Amino acid sequence: MATARHAAQAEQAGVGTPSRRPLAADIEAFLQHLRVARRLAPRTVAMYTDALHWLQQSAADDDVPLGQARAHHIRAWMAQLRERGLGPRSIAIALAAWRGLYRHWGRELRVSHNPVDGLRPPKAPKPLPKALSVDQAMALADQPVPTENPVLAARDHAIVELLYGCGLRVGELVGLDALPGPQAAGWIDPAEGTAHVLGKGSKRRSVPVGRAALQALTDWLAVRAQMAPPDEPALFVTRHGTRLSSSQVRTRITALGQAAGLPTGVHPHMLRHSYASHLLQSSGDLRGVQELLGHASISTTQIYTKLDFQHLAKVYDAAHPRAKKKQTSP
Questions:
Q1: What's 201's DSSP letter?
Q2: Is 103 a catalytic residue?
Q3: Cα 62 off chain centre by
Q4: Would residue 6 show up in a list of annotated catalytic residues for this protein?
Q5: Contact, 158 vs 210, CB < 8 A?
Q6: DSSP summary character for residue 175
Q7: Residue 53 burial class via C-beta count within 10 angstroms: exposed 0-12, middle 13-18, buried 19 and up
Q8: Three-class SS of residue 180?
Q9: How far apart are CA 227 and CA 240, in angstroms?
Q10: Active-site hit among 99, 250, 269, 311
């Protein structure tokens, strides 16, 4: 709400900005407390300042002294923010600022209760995960790695195949060791065609490794010793022979996506989303996909059913004769 971007968004939506009448001295004292005692970031203080301008103006419009505000007043003022076009995130910031103000006044014995306690902002809709189409995923996997170093090319190709072919998280991928052992967070057994990984919450799971990923892994292992020193356990290493980091994998995946000409910024988790979405489209087995992804709750996996429906809707719109608009005769 405080930045130029927020102001521009509000202006485009036809939302007015809060009144810039000077804040009351006791509100300014609270903001000073946030700056000095709490050491909040300047951007946070700026957003809280805007929120408190809204609060002061709303109370003045309704002729309600702020020290006498009750929960029904706060609900009404929160509803006004929604009517003015503010989204759930901005309203949550406003409520946090208002709650903090009354909490501060409560410590100073200026108010007997906090009218904001117990109030919750409207829930923000969860965005659907972004996934590649099957053709895009194939284009990324088959894209020649943009490097003149064949060892790096073999490494990066194996990384793409494992991320998309096994649905690994990037942290699980970089945690893989070249050989199993008591200290290994994860490893791949080529004979079994299985990846054993350490996932979220230190939970282990095993996932099948497809033929393409196994071949890419074999190609990488054949040249890995040219980059990795003998005592380095990591499966994937940098040019300097140290374990590859998650951020380095993200950089490489983004570069590969650009080289493949994909229309969207590609990142490792997008390949996991693509893996899940394409599996669900092919099998319809939600429980099986949950196990392969290592989700503790099936509700987390169910988001891919929405992604799958979105895909089917696009197919319908493009192919079904009843989905096409009638051509109006001149």
A1: G
A2: no
A3: 40
A4: no
A5: no
A6: T
A7: buried
A8: coil
A9: 7
A10: 269
Catalytic residue among 89, 200, 203, 324: 200
Residue recorded with tokens 């919750």: 120
Decide: helix, strand or coil at residue 72. Answer: helix
- Please say if 164 is a catalytic residue: no
The full DSSP string for 78-111 is HHHHHHTT--HHHHHHHHHHHHHHHHHHHHTTS-
Among the listed residues 93, 115, 105, the one whose alpha carbon sits nearest the alpha carbon of residue 49: 93
- Asked if 320 is an active-site residue, the reply is no
- How crowded is residue 313: how many other Cβ atoms within 10 Å of its Cβ? 11
Q: Is 304 a catalytic residue?
A: yes
Q: What tokens does 247 get?
A: 């951020």
**Does residue 326 carry a catalytic annotation?**
no
What's the predicted TM-score (pTM) here? 0.57
SS3 218: helix
* 150-168: pLDDT as tens digits: 999 999 999 999 999 888 9
* Among 274, 279, 253, residue whose Cα is nearest residue 173: 253
Catalytic residue among 196, 272, 273, 278: 272
> Per-residue pLDDT tens for 238-262?
999 999 999 999 999 999 999 888 8
Q: How many CB atoms lie within 10 A of CB 136?
A: 19
Structure-token pair, residue 28: 């300014």
- Closest listed residue to residue 84, CA positions, set 26, 12, 187, 25: 12
The answer to whether 176 touches 188, Cβ cutoff 8 Å, is yes
Q: Are 78 and 95 in contact (CB under 8 A)?
A: yes
Averaged over 205-209, what is the pLDDT?
90
Write down the catalytic residue from 6, 53, 196, 295: 295
Token duo for residue 67: 């020290």
Catalytic residue, from 53, 155, 157, 169: name it.
Answer: 169
The residue type at 28:
E
Residue 37 to residue 47: CA distance in whole angstroms: 17
- State how far Cα 67 lies from the chain centre: 39
